[in-house]
Amino acid sequence: MLTSYFLLSLLAAAFSSAFAAPSLMGMQRLTSGSSIAVDKENQFLISPNGTFSSGFYRVGNNSYCFSIWFTNSFHKTVVWMANRDKPVNGEQSRLTLNFDSNLILTDADDTVVWSTDTTSVGEIELRLLETGNLVVMNQSQHFIWQSFDFPTDTLLPTQRFLKTSTLISMRSLGTYLSGFYYFKFNDDNILNLIFNGPSLSSIYWPYTLVLSFVNGRNPYNSSRIAILDETGSFESSDGFQFNATDDGVGPKRRLTMDYDGVLRLYSLDESTGNWKITWLPGGRIDACMVHGLCGDYGICEYNPLPTCTCPPGFSRNDPSDWTKGCKPPFNFTCDSSYNSSSSKEFDFLPLPNTDYFGYDWGYAAGVPIEICKNICLTNCKCAGFGYAMDGSAQCYPKTALRNGYRKPDTAVQMFMKVPKSLRRSWLELKSSSELNCSDSELVLNTHVYGEKGEKFRYIVTIGASELIFIGFGWWFIFRKRVNEELLISGKNASNFRWFGIEEEGECTDLVKWIMKSIEKGEVKKVVDPRLKVENEEQNKKMEMLLKVAVECVREDRNSRPAMSQIVELLTCYEQSNLHEDIVRD
């Protein structure tokens, strides 16, 4: 497994290098009428001391963005892009500084993709300053245009952050398109972290249920300005401030709105080219409080790293995008036909230590749980309710289940409203397994957590696949040709009848016999001895496979799980084991 991890790490480094810009000698300035061509490797700008470079940066197959990046960082970390949402072709695209001072980016067909929309008379030039600021300036050193006024996802030291400024995250790791997480001043003059999704928007930091004064913020200011200085100190007009853990002049720094919705301050270790985190909101990673991370119905939890899961029986809407949430195994429309009789068709699925932030439809304290249930049952639009299990008996009926998170110290227990006809057997199987399924990906930038996080990131898919292959191997052994004598007797190589076994003089249904064996903890009795189940871990794997197999052959075909649910469960089981391995390591 470590060999696989090492090879994958090398491949990841090679992939990153392939997408990085060239490290050749660059130009100090671009004069009027000159261009930088995408297919000329030596045509890029470099700052006076070489800290920053600016040119065409490859973001995909034959796709480029005009960018600024740290020259000596290991992955050529990008801090600004002109056309992040409209990449240009890898041939014949160019950036041109016109004689009227307008800086334009054209695609291969001469279509203008981006421009500064500036005009000026006299001699002008384009320079990349040592601060990382790309500027169009005249002979008087006056800035006609500067990139510092139009940040993408990163704020650099000495760069002013104004009321019109916004840091917008990447869509996902390695995808430079604009994402859904914003850092900006709101209309109350307070700096916020905001989830701005396709269908909804919400503030998740600072905590909105606490007054701004309690958070140390002052909304009574109109300047709306903030700045990160060269010592790693950040100050804002709303009173918010922080210092880097390695404060002082020296380290190269950047404040980045990361793709996972967490704002982080980084310092560059120039000896390795790697970044280290020197500040986080609240001084700790609490990514599960980020809104929209796991989509509708999704639940964020730490296993030990932040991952997304779906509630029991639910499945992902998009295997490649957690922000699209989970799909319930039932259809429900709220209309005028919903009445007291309709409410009897529903029940609640308990989700311990789980809560969904926001969308509360009222609030009541000191309410017995049965009354809270009735409040939700009688309201068609109620999707479930949160109930405080700490003795306060607080009831939170909810109209939508978004921004879910699960923590051991969460006093709230979520009760999700589901049809009584929902397949109880499948839910019980999911719940009894005590699995926290996150498919094969984390929701955080795992390099933040060091070597163990990296190890997990690469081996999780391999580990999950291992269990699935074991399952297919089990199936393959049972379908192998056996000798004629065994076929005539109705037995296979494991020496039990395929359509029924004879046990103590009576014929027993195979499925019931397997279920009874599982209940008695006699898994080895069922499994082919050639599989050599020799320890508790292998025994648990086989028990899980048998449980899934039994679900797949239920008499009622509507009660059988879909293939996607089977894969989810098996993958989830192996990932749970991997989490335990990481903790032990």
TrEMBL record:
This protein's name: non-specific serine/threonine protein kinase
Reactions accelerated catalytically: L-threonyl-[protein] + ATP = O-phospho-L-threonyl-[protein] + ADP + H(+); L-seryl-[protein] + ATP = O-phospho-L-seryl-[protein] + ADP + H(+)
Signal peptide: 1-20
An annotated GO cellular component: membrane
Membrane found in the keyword field: yes
Pfam families from the UniProt entry: B_lectin, S_locus_glycop
Record-linked PANTHER family: OS07G0415500 PROTEIN, RECEPTOR-LIKE SERINE_THREONINE-PROTEIN KINASE
Xref: SUPFAM superfamilies: alpha-D-mannose-specific plant lectins
Enzyme Commission code: 2.7.11.1
Transmembrane segments: 456-478
Domain Apple: 334-419
Chief location: membrane
Gene Ontology MF term list: protein serine/threonine kinase activity
Gene3D superfamilies listed in its UniProt record: Bulb-type lectin domain, Transferase(Phosphotransferase) domain 1
SMART domains on file: B_lectin (SM00108)
EGF-like domain boundaries: 284-320
Sequence ranges assigned to domain Bulb-type lectin in this UniProt record: 15-149
